[in-house]
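$ ./design --mode recover --in tokens.txt
reading tokens...
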């Protein structure tokens, strides 16, 4: 941890990832894992010029009451209906200047089973001129719930930050706790964690590709990819006792070994998916009516993705090659190598192509890890120690970061940064490159987490 003067804090030119505060410092995290701080002065710190810092500064104000001096965006992040004077004002939405502009409000309650979030579109006809996404409706007080607990007890809250990335968040939390306490989990546990993480990636990539096709009216791909998601989740239940593998990753190792019949179930589901992926890819590429809806829709330019240090398939579809499994990297991926696909088009079609390539890579990784599964213990007891550390894991969306301060076995402070936090602004921009009817395709192609941001 590097303590900076206010001037050096503002002048730091690295790739910004996250910002948070505690009672003494403001913290800023930069790629690949550089943590810098500056002291708070009367509850305030200098605002950072990085594009991605705005939401984090708003959250620090809502949760800790700390002010980013000079911040351009001072809207609430989660406390939309709670003004400092105790009133409950209705949130304001700005609109572009001009004639013939109208606004369309969507959410926070949506059709089907979708997380809560409000979208305010400013339109001229069907053209989207501006989108403002307002989150915070799934704020759960996760950070406060984690404080005051042991790492083992708090792991259940980490696993529920974003249910579709429960394994990735659990791994990042475990990495932070283990680093803070100076322990290394057994090798078999590390392999089982990675296997679960890659299965989680497969399930989400498959279901999202299918859902995008379904939103475009192409039900065949939706049905087939939904079947493969079910196959992966069923194999996870057989192997680990839970379809989402929730609560399986714990600080010190894993909660249980792979169950009898689990390896065969996983390999069978992988083989079925691998057999059909070439055909499904051809369907995606060859149907002109589907390509017409996806190509050139919802563009995230590479320069914007770079400015927000976007990770995951959203960043990689727009020219960014960062993958936390490689840099800063963590076990056991150094033993297997990872092919990180990158494209430049930045549209819905490019994000699907990245996902399809990642599916093939995850199948390879899972097979190789199962074939080389070490014969060691699956966990160790945690010492009653103290320390502060960062932990990271690559979710299917991109890197998730956990920061823990542990004092005599109890977590005294915590912060969590989901990859989605730096992707919501990209969705707002991508919507303005298309018409309103294309927004469901764009939204699902990025699939940023609401719960993971609301904390």
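writing sequence...
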């Amino acid at each position: 941890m590097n303590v900076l003067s206010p001037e050096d804090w503002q002048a730091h030119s690295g790739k910004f990832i996250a910002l948070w505060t505690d009672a003494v410092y403001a913290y800023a995290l930069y790629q690949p894992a550089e943590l810098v701080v500056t002291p708070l002065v009367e509850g305030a710190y200098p605002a950072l010029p990085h594009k991605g810092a705005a939401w984090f500064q708003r959250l620090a104000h809502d949760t800790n009451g700390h002010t980013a001096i000079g911040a351009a965006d001072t809207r609430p992040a989660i406390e939309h209906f709670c003004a400092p004077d105790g009133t409950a004002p209705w949130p304001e939405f700005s609109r572009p200047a001009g004639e013939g502009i109208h606004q369309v409000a969507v959410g926070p309650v949506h059709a089907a089973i979708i997380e809560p979030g409000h979208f305010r579109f400013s339109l001229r006809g069907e053209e989207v001129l501006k989108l403002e996404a307002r989150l915070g409706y799934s704020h759960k007080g996760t950070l406060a719930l984690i404080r005051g607990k042991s790492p083992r007890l708090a792991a259940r809250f980490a696993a529920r930050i974003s249910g579709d990335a429960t394994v990735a968040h659990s791994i990042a939390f475990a990495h932070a706790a283990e680093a803070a306490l100076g322990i290394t989990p057994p090798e078999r546990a590390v392999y089982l964690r990675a296997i679960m993480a890659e299965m989680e990636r497969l399930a989400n990539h498959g279901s999202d590709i299918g859902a995008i096709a379904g939103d475009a009216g192409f039900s065949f791909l939706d049905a087939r990819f939904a079947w493969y998601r079910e196959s992966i989740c069923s194999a996870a239940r057989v192997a680990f006792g839970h379809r989402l593998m929730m609560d399986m990753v714990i600080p010190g190792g894993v909660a249980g070994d792979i169950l009898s019949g689990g390896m065969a179930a996983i390999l069978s589901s992988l083989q079925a998916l691998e057999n059909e992926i070439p055909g499904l890819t051809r369907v995606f590429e060859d149907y002109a009516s589907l390509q017409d809806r996806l190509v050139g829709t919802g563009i995230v330019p590479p320069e914007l993705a770079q400015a927000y240090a976007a990770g995951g398939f959203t960043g990689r579809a727009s020219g960014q090659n960062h993958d936390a499994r490689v840099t800063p990297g963590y076990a056991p991926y150094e033993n297997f190598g990872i092919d990180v696909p990158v494209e430049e088009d930045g549209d819905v079609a490019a994000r699907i192509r990245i996902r399809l390539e990642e599916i093939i890579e995850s199948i390879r990784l899972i097979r190789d890890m199962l074939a080389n599964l070490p014969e060691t213990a699956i966990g160790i007891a945690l010492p009653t120690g103290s320390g502060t550390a960062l932990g990271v894991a690559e979710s299917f969306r991109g890197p998730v970061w956990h920061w823990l301060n542990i004092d005599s076995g109890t977590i005294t402070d915590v912060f969590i940064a989901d990859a989605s936090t730096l992707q919501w602004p990209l969705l707002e921009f991508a919507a303005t490159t298309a018409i309103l009817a294309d927004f469901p395709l764009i939204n699902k192609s990025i699939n940023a987490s609401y719960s993971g941001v609301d904390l």
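exit 0
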